[in-house]
Amino acid sequence: MTDGKAMSETLSISEAAEIIGVSYNQIYKLVKDGTLSAFKLRKNWRIISESVNAYKERSQPEIVTEINGERVFLAWEFAQEIGLPFTTYHTYISNGKLKVIKMHSRNYITESEKKRFLNRDKEIMGYRVVNLNKAAKLAGHSNRWIVKKIKEGKIEAVADGVKYHVFLDSLKEFVAQEKKGQNLLKDKTFLRIPHNGKRRVKTLTKEGETE
Predict the structure, then answer these.
(1) CA distance 202 to 192
(2) pTM of the model
(3) Separation CA 137–CA 126 (nearest Å)
(4) What does the alpha-carbon distance between residue 154 and residue 135 come to, in Å, rounded to a whole number?
(5) CA of 42: how far to CAs of 2, 46, 86, 182, in Å?
(6) C-alpha closest to that of 81 among 161, 167, 8, 166
């Protein structure tokens, strides 16, 4: 039961605690008394996801969908949707980067906080980064175009799972270069790269081509 598929269908004690909305120690007790199905892997407990979901359904109150007139969502489910690792999710809650409302032992996130978090600017290694959607909006292109330029090495970014964090300075620099190239074309100027690899600018005139 230790293959990839089996592991993907199991949870750590911390993950189970977050989903059910109880403490780490309470989950440990539920494992010990057999309420939750689990097995040990290298001294760590892995809990069967189905048993966690079944326990949650029969023991927990209904999920809240609105608080103070604003729509809310389960914070952990939101974190899973955007590919936020569990440890990072808890760190963000602890340092206030992700603002949650605790109710009935569950963490909720408001719709406005969801939008703020998704559109936030962050820093990695001291450099400002933006998510893929914002990068595409700033560049005036599609998400697919941004990903293509990242893979070509023309725009710098870091990957967090399947998500990209695009370095803002690199994005602005590339977009500026692209716009400069477009302006040259509008002025009947184009860039030609000869066989020796050096870039030369040639301008079209009525008489012909001049360097």
Answers:
(1) 7
(2) 0.43
(3) 23
(4) 14
(5) 11, 10, 20, 58
(6) 161
For 121-170, the pLDDT digits (tens) are 566 656 788 888 888 888 888 999 999 998 888 898 887 767 788 888 88
**Spatial distance between the Cα atoms of 109 and 67, rounded to a whole number of angstroms:** 10
Length of the chain: 211
Q: How far apart are CA 170 and CA 155, in angstroms?
A: 6
Reported as a single tens digit per residue, the pLDDT across 21-43 is 788 888 989 999 999 999 988 88
**SS3 sequence of 36-78:** CCEEEECCEEEEEHHHHHHHHHHHCCCCCCEECCEEEEEHHHH
Closest CA to 104 of 16, 19, 21, 18: 21
**Token representation of residue 161:** 């799972």
Instruction: Provide the token pair at 119.
Output: 């559109």
